[in-house]
Amino acid sequence: MKWLLVLAIVLPLAQQPTEAPKYKGTAETNRTKGTDQPKNTERNQTQPAQATPASPQMPVATESQRHAATADDHARTISQQTANEDRSTQRKLAWFTGVLAVVGGLQLVVMFLTWLIYRRQAYEMRRQRHEMRRQRHVMLNQWKAMRAQLGQTEEANRINREGIQAGQRAYVSFAVLDIQYGKNVDANGNVQWWFRDAIENTGNTPAWKLIDRTNAVWPEAELPDDFAFPDLGDERLYVSTLSAKSRIYSAKLAIADSVIRSVYEGRLRLYFYGWATYRDVFDGTPLRRTEFCHEWRILEIAGDRLTLDISLHSRHNTQT
């Protein structure tokens, strides 16, 4: 009987582990059953007299089924809890995904509105750029027109100024018929004739820094028009200011009596030439220059008197 009872207890315990791997809670149930099994064994040992010899395995089988049903209920409970947790997690994931979708949609809307704003700003910037180009073109045309008007005004002022200056400026020339001369004897007893011409300012304003250069030559033949008269090398006369409508005389030019008589006899020709430089009172005007060249013919010599025939040769009163 004892062996039968041991086999009845051990066989159900050996059969139950085959269902334990399904759920974690089943192993815990088996452990609980293992701890409770000795108590049942002791309880069964204390009642040997009450056991029914006809069916000794009936109580053991009923207890195993009860524990198996409890384990199955516990496993179903755990499975139900796990399923509930999975559904709760899926609902949370669904809510989180929905929130992300809404946020993404809002971001798309914000990005679209931002794109519209940028597009509007780009349009305004292009319009302002075209307007600035148009205004620059207009300002350039206005500047060109003002420059042209300024040029015309300056030209008109220059013409008026030159007209005023032409009417008011100084005019220096040589008086052809106003020739002073005389006769003297030098320290060596040589007879000489001296001459000087008149320089006059016929203009309405003074001539400044007047410089006169005069000389005479007596070649045997007539000088050509392109003859280069030699320079004196020094200033014959320097006058700081020659007033308007006034006249002065140049320095004396000495010529030997033998030259004068050769001219009188027709063996030589006498040319009296020179030039004068001066400046106007107006600022910015160029240096003025007046040139002259006269041919003198001596018609008569009577003591200290000469009769001259003065004719123009070339380059008289050249203004620059």
Sheet with the most strands, sense and barrel status? 5 strands, antiparallel
The best one-word shape is rod-shaped
What string, H for helix and E for strand, traces the elements in order?
A: HHHEEEEEEHEEE
The domain tally reads 2
Write down the overall mean pLDDT. 78
- Gyration radius from CA atoms, angstroms: 72 Å
Percent of residues in beta strands:
25-35%
- Which regions have little confidence, pLDDT < 50, spanning 5+ residues? 1-6, 13-59
- Strand ordering within the main sheet: 4-3-7-8-9
Give the helix tally: 4
Under the CATH scheme, which architecture of the largest domain would be assigned? Sandwich
Q: In terms of structural class, how would the helical and strand content be classed?
A: alpha+beta
Q: Oligomerization state of this entry?
A: single chain
Percentage of residues assigned to helices:
40-55%
CATH topology of the largest domain: Immunoglobulin-like
Total E-strand runs: 9
CATH top level of the largest domain? Mainly Beta
Characterise the protein shown here.
By secondary structure, the chain is of the alpha+beta class. It has two domains: 2-91, no CATH class; 172-312, Immunoglobulin-like (Sandwich), CATH 2.60.40. It contains four helices and nine strands, in the order H-H-H-E-E-E-E-E-E-H-E-E-E. It has helices spanning 2-15, 24-45, 58-168, 257-264; strands at residues 172-185, 191-201, 207-217, 237-242, 246-249, 253-256, 270-279, 288-302, 305-312. The strands form two sheets. A five-stranded antiparallel sheet has the order 4-3-7-8-9. Strands 1, 2, 5 and 6 form a four-stranded antiparallel sheet that branches. Strand 8 and strand 9 form a beta hairpin. Helix 2 packs antiparallel against helix 3 (58-168). The protein is rod-shaped and about 190 Å long. The model is unreliable at 1-6 and 13-59 (pLDDT under 50).
